[in-house]
């Protein structure tokens, strides 16, 4: 099958949707499908062979974060040309209601179109105001996928209709084994964090407050933190006596991310909201890391209601501290959670997820039509 996948966010900056699309594309290629991805990206940035750049993206505040999007006549022209040259059996757009390439693709294309919704957002006035403009594009979608119940609820509230629930995937084999970073976790124990430092909903400040509480009584305990952002600003939230025990790695490679997960006694996901699934949890589960996570609905589902990881009250640093101390002091409990996580994450292994996505493709291409460019579309 010839499959065209549209990424709405810039490939240059890592994110959950980009990682999902990358791993899906590679899983589909492993299944012997022909795959091309178009994404916002600078023309001079190295890209995988299957990614076509659609030009530079513009940063836009969105859902408590900053989304880097590409919209307008020039990106539309590139999308149009990519669809025409690709001769795809099916077009798979991600986050189709976002003002970026996926929405443009829906406008300029006709034929079998599948859409995946990742975001869990309350209904917004902006989305309501934009509905008439969105409808002409979104009504072309043949089938819809949601990565979580929260994302499906968002889809129903914003766009109407329903969706097949297919979760995010994780390359389980890639995470299963890795050497820890030199000197980690160490005799005093280590707690890990992966995420953007300057994005408040990722909850790093909650973890730092918890460390302020338990650090003084545990002289060897350290934090290992990886992700883009201002480390100096984050470290300013930590008292001087504890700062030498908080280690910032900055943005890390995929290989080192796996090593980080194998370098800690406990992995913490202290997110405060805006999460529809929790791919970082699935990655930590695949690495067999004992997990402490905020009791968000999406996290609770991934962790099987707390069977595959400890849950604490959202935003409650004291509750996080108590959960962390319990796990640090109980190696048997950590081993039990690790085993449960490794079992639960099998549901999210990419070969399983990719085959479920292919089944959706097969339902929309059954009629024999192919993806074509609309004659009078935007960006002609």
List keywords for this structure.
single chain; 380 residues; Rossmann fold; six-stranded parallel beta sheet; 38% helix; 18% strand; elongated
Q: Would you give an account of this structure?
A:
This protein has helices spanning 16-30, 73-86, 101-108, 125-138, 149-159, 172-176, 204-214, 231-235, 254-261, 279-286, 297-302, 317-328, 331-344, 350-364, and strands spanning 2-6, 34-39, 51-53, 58-62, 65-69, 90-94, 109-110, 113-117, 143-146, 164-165, 190-194, 222-226, 246-248, 266-269, 291-294, 310-312, 372-373. Strand 11, helix 7 (204-214) and strand 12 form a beta-alpha-beta unit. The strands form four sheets. The protein has a seven-stranded parallel beta sheet with strand order 3-2-1-6-8-9-10, sandwiched between helices. It has a six-stranded parallel beta sheet with strand order 13-12-11-14-15-16, sandwiched between helices. It has two domains: 2-169 and 349-373, Rossmann fold; 172-347, 3-Layer(aba) Sandwich (Rossmann fold). The chain is elongated. The mean pLDDT is 90. The protein is an alpha/beta fold and 380 residues long.
